[in-house]
Amino acid sequence: MRLSEKTFQVLDTLDRKEISSQRQLADHSGISLGQVNYILKSLLEKGLVKVDNFRNNPKKIGYVYFLTPKGIEAKSRLAVRFVIRKIREYDEIRARLTERLIEVEKSGFSRVVFIGPPVVKDLINKLIKERNLNIVLANSYSDPRDSSIKEAGSFDVALLFDDDPEGIPDMEIAKIPGDRIVTLW
Protein backbone atom coordinates (compact mmCIF):
# COMPACT_ATOMS: atom_id res chain seq x y z
CA MET A 1 0.00 0.00 0.00
CA ARG A 2 1.28 3.44 -0.97
CA LEU A 3 1.19 6.04 1.77
CA SER A 4 -1.61 8.32 0.59
CA GLU A 5 -3.55 11.32 1.88
CA LYS A 6 -5.99 8.95 3.57
CA THR A 7 -3.06 7.19 5.22
CA PHE A 8 -1.92 10.58 6.47
CA GLN A 9 -5.42 11.26 7.84
CA VAL A 10 -5.35 7.96 9.76
CA LEU A 11 -1.84 8.57 11.11
CA ASP A 12 -2.69 12.15 12.03
CA THR A 13 -5.88 11.09 13.83
CA LEU A 14 -4.01 8.41 15.78
CA ASP A 15 -1.38 10.98 16.72
CA ARG A 16 -3.94 13.52 17.97
CA LYS A 17 -6.56 11.33 19.65
CA GLU A 18 -6.73 8.20 21.76
CA ILE A 19 -8.50 5.75 19.49
CA SER A 20 -9.82 2.43 20.73
CA SER A 21 -11.84 1.16 17.75
CA GLN A 22 -11.79 1.26 13.99
CA ARG A 23 -15.26 2.81 14.01
CA GLN A 24 -13.99 5.61 16.24
CA LEU A 25 -11.00 6.07 13.92
CA ALA A 26 -13.35 6.25 10.92
CA ASP A 27 -15.51 8.87 12.67
CA HIS A 28 -12.54 11.06 13.65
CA SER A 29 -10.65 10.76 10.36
CA GLY A 30 -13.62 11.17 8.01
CA ILE A 31 -12.75 7.95 6.18
CA SER A 32 -15.12 5.04 5.66
CA LEU A 33 -14.88 2.11 8.05
CA GLY A 34 -13.88 -0.26 5.23
CA GLN A 35 -11.04 2.02 4.12
CA VAL A 36 -9.90 2.48 7.72
CA ASN A 37 -9.78 -1.30 8.11
CA TYR A 38 -7.68 -1.69 4.96
CA ILE A 39 -5.31 1.19 5.83
CA LEU A 40 -4.94 0.13 9.46
CA LYS A 41 -4.08 -3.47 8.52
CA SER A 42 -1.35 -2.19 6.22
CA LEU A 43 0.00 0.22 8.85
CA LEU A 44 0.07 -2.58 11.44
CA GLU A 45 1.94 -4.86 9.00
CA LYS A 46 4.50 -2.14 8.27
CA GLY A 47 5.03 -1.48 11.96
CA LEU A 48 3.80 2.11 11.79
CA VAL A 49 0.93 1.48 14.22
CA LYS A 50 0.61 -0.79 17.23
CA VAL A 51 -2.43 -1.97 19.12
CA ASP A 52 -2.18 -2.55 22.84
CA ASN A 53 -4.49 -3.75 25.60
CA PHE A 54 -4.93 -0.89 28.06
CA ARG A 55 -7.22 -2.61 30.57
CA ASN A 56 -6.02 -5.46 32.69
CA ASN A 57 -9.53 -6.52 33.64
CA PRO A 58 -10.15 -9.87 31.84
CA LYS A 59 -13.89 -9.16 31.57
CA LYS A 60 -13.39 -5.82 29.80
CA ILE A 61 -11.07 -5.93 26.86
CA GLY A 62 -10.01 -2.51 25.71
CA TYR A 63 -7.53 -1.71 23.01
CA VAL A 64 -5.84 1.45 21.94
CA TYR A 65 -4.11 2.14 18.64
CA PHE A 66 -0.98 4.25 18.72
CA LEU A 67 1.84 5.33 16.43
CA THR A 68 5.22 3.72 16.67
CA PRO A 69 8.36 5.88 16.26
CA LYS A 70 8.44 4.64 12.66
CA GLY A 71 4.79 5.75 12.30
CA ILE A 72 5.55 9.21 13.66
CA GLU A 73 8.38 9.54 11.14
CA ALA A 74 6.12 8.42 8.27
CA LYS A 75 3.40 10.86 9.37
CA SER A 76 5.93 13.71 9.37
CA ARG A 77 7.08 12.88 5.83
CA LEU A 78 3.49 12.62 4.63
CA ALA A 79 2.61 15.92 6.32
CA VAL A 80 5.35 17.70 4.37
CA ARG A 81 4.10 16.25 1.05
CA PHE A 82 0.48 17.04 1.97
CA VAL A 83 1.21 20.66 2.92
CA ILE A 84 3.35 21.29 -0.17
CA ARG A 85 0.64 19.85 -2.45
CA LYS A 86 -2.09 21.97 -0.79
CA ILE A 87 0.03 25.14 -1.08
CA ARG A 88 0.61 24.43 -4.78
CA GLU A 89 -3.13 23.88 -5.29
CA TYR A 90 -3.88 27.15 -3.47
CA ASP A 91 -1.34 29.02 -5.62
CA GLU A 92 -2.91 27.56 -8.78
CA ILE A 93 -6.37 28.69 -7.63
CA ARG A 94 -5.06 32.19 -6.87
CA ALA A 95 -3.42 32.39 -10.30
CA ARG A 96 -6.56 31.24 -12.09
CA LEU A 97 -8.80 33.68 -10.22
CA THR A 98 -6.28 36.49 -10.83
CA GLU A 99 -6.34 35.76 -14.58
CA ARG A 100 -10.13 35.94 -14.55
CA LEU A 101 -10.13 39.24 -12.64
CA ILE A 102 -7.62 40.71 -15.11
CA GLU A 103 -9.97 39.66 -17.95
CA VAL A 104 -12.85 41.43 -16.17
CA GLU A 105 -10.75 44.59 -15.82
CA LYS A 106 -9.64 44.44 -19.49
CA SER A 107 -13.29 44.14 -20.52
CA GLY A 108 -13.83 47.60 -19.02
CA PHE A 109 -15.72 46.53 -15.91
CA SER A 110 -14.73 48.37 -12.75
CA ARG A 111 -17.70 48.19 -10.33
CA VAL A 112 -18.53 44.58 -9.60
CA VAL A 113 -20.63 42.60 -7.18
CA PHE A 114 -19.52 39.20 -6.03
CA ILE A 115 -22.00 36.35 -5.65
CA GLY A 116 -20.63 33.34 -3.81
CA PRO A 117 -19.17 32.12 -0.52
CA PRO A 118 -17.68 34.77 1.81
CA VAL A 119 -14.33 32.95 1.98
CA VAL A 120 -13.97 33.27 -1.82
CA LYS A 121 -15.06 36.91 -1.67
CA ASP A 122 -12.26 37.57 0.82
CA LEU A 123 -9.77 35.95 -1.54
CA ILE A 124 -11.11 38.01 -4.47
CA ASN A 125 -10.67 41.19 -2.40
CA LYS A 126 -7.07 40.24 -1.58
CA LEU A 127 -6.27 39.52 -5.21
CA ILE A 128 -7.75 42.84 -6.37
CA LYS A 129 -5.60 44.69 -3.82
CA GLU A 130 -2.42 42.66 -4.43
CA ARG A 131 -2.59 43.12 -8.20
CA ASN A 132 -3.67 46.76 -7.86
CA LEU A 133 -6.56 46.10 -10.22
CA ASN A 134 -8.91 48.89 -11.19
CA ILE A 135 -11.89 46.97 -9.84
CA VAL A 136 -14.10 47.95 -6.93
CA LEU A 137 -16.09 45.28 -5.15
CA ALA A 138 -19.33 47.24 -4.75
CA ASN A 139 -21.12 44.53 -2.79
CA SER A 140 -21.29 40.81 -2.20
CA TYR A 141 -24.02 38.23 -1.79
CA SER A 142 -23.73 34.61 -0.76
CA ASP A 143 -26.98 33.53 -2.44
CA PRO A 144 -27.56 34.12 -6.18
CA ARG A 145 -31.30 34.14 -5.51
CA ASP A 146 -31.01 37.11 -3.16
CA SER A 147 -33.66 39.59 -4.36
CA SER A 148 -31.66 42.59 -3.09
CA ILE A 149 -29.18 42.17 -5.97
CA LYS A 150 -31.77 43.72 -8.28
CA GLU A 151 -30.20 47.20 -8.38
CA ALA A 152 -28.49 46.49 -11.69
CA GLY A 153 -27.41 50.12 -12.13
CA SER A 154 -25.07 50.07 -9.14
CA PHE A 155 -22.50 47.74 -10.76
CA ASP A 156 -21.06 46.88 -14.16
CA VAL A 157 -20.96 43.11 -13.78
CA ALA A 158 -21.77 40.35 -11.31
CA LEU A 159 -18.95 37.90 -10.59
CA LEU A 160 -20.62 34.56 -10.01
CA PHE A 161 -18.95 31.78 -8.04
CA ASP A 162 -21.76 29.35 -7.34
CA ASP A 163 -21.85 25.57 -7.13
CA ASP A 164 -25.43 25.38 -8.38
CA PRO A 165 -25.35 24.02 -11.96
CA GLU A 166 -28.47 26.06 -12.57
CA GLY A 167 -26.84 29.19 -11.06
CA ILE A 168 -26.90 31.46 -14.09
CA PRO A 169 -30.60 30.94 -14.88
CA ASP A 170 -31.34 31.64 -11.19
CA MET A 171 -29.87 35.10 -11.70
CA GLU A 172 -33.08 36.00 -13.52
CA ILE A 173 -34.72 35.98 -10.08
CA ALA A 174 -32.26 38.70 -9.03
CA LYS A 175 -33.11 40.58 -12.26
CA ILE A 176 -29.54 40.62 -13.58
CA PRO A 177 -29.30 40.31 -17.36
CA GLY A 178 -27.15 37.42 -18.61
CA ASP A 179 -24.70 39.77 -20.32
CA ARG A 180 -23.87 41.31 -16.93
CA ILE A 181 -22.86 38.00 -15.34
CA VAL A 182 -19.30 36.64 -15.43
CA THR A 183 -18.48 33.27 -13.94
CA LEU A 184 -15.20 33.15 -12.09
CA TRP A 185 -14.45 29.56 -12.93
- The CATH homologous superfamily of the largest domain corresponds to Winged helix-like DNA-binding domain superfamily/Winged helix DNA-binding domain
| Helix share, percent | 40-55%
Strand residues, percent? 15-25%
User: Which structural category fits the helices and strands?
Assistant: alpha/beta
Query: Remind me, CATH topology of the largest domain?
Result: Arc Repressor Mutant, subunit A
String of helices and strands: HHHEEHEHEEHE
Q: Helix count, per DSSP?
A: 6
Low-confidence blocks of residues = none
Number of domains: 2
Instruction: Give the CATH level 1 class of the largest domain.
Output: Mainly Alpha
Gross morphology is elongated
Query: How confident is the prediction overall: mean pLDDT?
Result: 86
Gyration radius from CA atoms, angstroms: 24 Å
Please identify the oligomeric state. Answer: single chain
Number of DSSP strands? Answer: 6
- Tell me the distance between the termini: 35 Å
- CATH architecture designation of the largest domain: Orthogonal Bundle
- Enumerate the strands of the largest sheet in spatial order, edge to edge or round the barrel: 4-3-5-6
* Main beta sheet strand tally, sense and closure: 4 strands, parallel
